[in-house]
Amino acid sequence: MAGRFLTKRGGIWTYVRRVPDVYAQFDRRVLVRVSTRIAVSDDPSGRRAARVATRINSDLETYWHGLLEGRRDEARQRYEAARQRSRAMGLEYVDMVALIADRSADELMRRIEALEGRGLVEDEVAVAGALGGAERPVLRLSGLLKEYERLEKDALAGMSENQMRKWRNPKKRAIENLIAKITDKPVTEITRNDALDFRDWWQEKVERENLKWGTANKDIGHLNRMLKTLDKRLRLGIGAPFGELRFADDDGHRDAFDIAFVQNNILHEGALAGLNPEARAALYIVVETGLRLSEVTNLTKQTIQLGAKVPHVQVRPDGRRMKTDQSNRDIPLVGVALAAASAFPDGFPRYRDKPDSFSAVVNKYLAEHNLLPSDNHSAYSLRHTFEDRLTAVEAPEKVIASLMGHKWIRPKYGAGPSLEQKRQWLKKIAFNAPATV
């Protein structure tokens, strides 16, 4: 991509790029020229030079972005300081243009008198606060994620590094896709037409590349949530341009395995022999406990309680944020899960805080060995199967909710089902374990 900025200059491949308008205010160069130090005669096709140009382009964009973020931070700090000073004087912060155009002359005089009465006419921040002299910082799409993360700081507390990566990446992709379609516009200038154009772009892309509608819906959903949050918290007045634009989507459903299929195929002797031992043992625990993949991969020596009266695993945050409050639970170990946990009493360090890696390895293996009955089945389907098995033996709804980590529909009284009670129900649905775990 950066190869388009290459040109021949004095027999040398040279990177030449015009400074984008968004950065022109603080990078006064019209053109940026950087030699690749590769002679055209040594690289006629420009392939080597293109690789160098890619590095130059990446460094340059990082530099530009840093300058832009610095200016944004400074502008936001000035704006917030002016608003706070305005409130301290008992005044509503009003932009200077709106103050002159929409407010009365008496209101303007009242604000000037407030400054004079407090001896603040020489205080730049106070004057900016009273008279609306601090401009609202321009927030462009390229800065949307950073601002959203700042606003959601409390909600993100407790997330692990991997959880933060998974939280950021889809939002980052959605923003990059939108910028590619409508340019890096100020957030306040995004319109419903922009959102509709983006939806049309996704519709064509899904149909052309045979993608799933859920992929498009994720982009639209992330953009909608971010912009709605900013609109509410920063009073931007942009509404919800991406509201109610999701495509009809039925491709996110995961089917449960037939119980006999799990016993006769997945738990067949040697069926999982090709999986690495940690992945195999972790999968066996999922089969018998219904744990989420992110929960089984984060079991540790402290949360695998083999020496307890009722051997069990404890699902705890342990440096991560739980999916729900009810996810914090204890699950007895029976059958193949007990054997697997006994073989790995310290958990699965290879996959700790890496549930995506575990999922990819297991699903690839299951697919290659004909252990997925359809495209709607995956390792996660074993969790649905676990719930179906409990329902089949008519386990009480409160027991099912306690084991699944679901919210109980009725008010909570008492400590809930005991480990022994839960073990009794799990023994009723336990599979026959293969001889070798």
How is the topology of this model organized?
Blueprint lengths: L5 E4 L2 E7 L12 E9 L7 H42 L7 H7 L2 H13 L6 H8 L12 H8 L1 H4 L4 H22 L9 H18 L3 H22 L24 H8 L10 H13 L3 H4 L7 E2 L6 E4 L13 E4 L2 H9 L11 H14 L12 H12 L4 H8 L14 H11 L8
Antiparallel strand pairs: 1-2, 2-3, 4-5, 5-6
Describe the structure.
The chain is mainly alpha-helical. It has 4 domains: 2-67, no CATH class; 71-131, no CATH class; 141-234; 259-429, hpI Integrase, Chain A (Orthogonal Bundle), CATH 1.10.443. It has 17 helices and 6 strands. It has helices at residues 47-88, 96-102, 105-117, 124-131, 144-151, 153-156, 161-182, 192-209, 213-234, 259-266, 277-289, 293-296, 335-343, 355-368, 381-392, 397-404, 419-429, and strands at residues 6-9, 12-18, 31-39, 304-305, 312-315, 329-332. Helix 11 (277-289) packs parallel to helix 15 (381-392). It starts with 5 loop residues before the first strand and ends in an 8-residue tail after the last helix. The relative contact order is 0.07. The mean pLDDT is 85. It comes from Chelatococcus caeni. This is Integrase. Keywords: DNA recombination.
